[in-house]
Amino acid sequence: QVQLVESGGGLVQAGGSLRLSCAASGRTISSLTMAWFRQAPGKEREFVARSRWNGTILYYTNSVKGRFTISRDNVKNTLFLQMNTLKPEDTAVYYCAAKDNDDAPAYNYWGQGTQVTVSS
């Protein structure tokens, strides 16, 4: 089992930055594909970014390209999401997720989420 705990959310003005962290326990993340998702009020959960076990970045959703950076520290067992030039439409609960390999059909480990609110 993998336990994931997100932190780093908060309230920020448009144009500002936040760095989210996702601390994993129970298993090393070095073999896991990990990702960030977000869910805005009244909307479905949205895929944001994915990092393969070796740190290869496979995907960013178009709306965050050039502004968000996913990274991981396999030694510290932590996933990060650096969010720059934040916009009000980035307001959402951000979730960290993991799956056993890149070909697995679904993410089977999820954190509890951290709220990001961007004011205009």
Characteristic terms for this protein:
single chain, 120 residues, mainly beta, 7-stranded mixed β-sheet, 4-stranded antiparallel β-sheet
Report on this structure:
With 120 residues, this protein is mainly beta. The protein is 0% helix and 52% strand. It has no helices and eleven strands. Strands 2, 4, 5, 6, 9, 10 and 11 form a seven-stranded mixed sheet that branches. The protein has a four-stranded antiparallel sheet with strand order 1-3-8-7, with no helix packed on it. Strand 7 and strand 8 form a beta hairpin. The chain is globular and about 40 Å long. The mean pLDDT is 94.
* Class from secondary-structure proportions: mainly beta
Helices, by number, come to: 0
Q: How is the quaternary structure best described? A: single chain
Task: Sketch the major β-sheet.
Answer: 7 strands, mixed
Unreliable segments (pLDDT under 50, ≥5 consecutive)?
A: none
Which whole number gives the mean pLDDT?
Answer: 94
What is the H/E string?
Answer: EEEEEEEEEEE
Helix content: under 10%
Overall number of strands:
11
Mass-distribution shape: globular
Computed over alpha carbons, the radius of gyration is 13 Å
Query: In whole angstroms, how far apart are the ends?
Result: 40 Å
Report the β-strand fraction as a percent range: over 45%
